[in-house]
Amino acid sequence: MAASKRDSSKQSLYFPMEMLDEIREQAKRLDRSLSWVIQRAWTVAKAEIRQMPDSDGRRS
Known about the structure:
Elements: H1 17-30, H2 34-50
């Protein structure tokens, strides 16, 4: 059997309950998993997050 092209690992993330409820609602609406919604959110937001200054005020 060929090795999977996907590199995945298990990771625990903690969200405030209200945020998690919103993510669950969207996952249900989209008929997708929580993991898919979080991964897609990162893909959409990462460029904006990279523009945020570092803790010392520098931008990445």
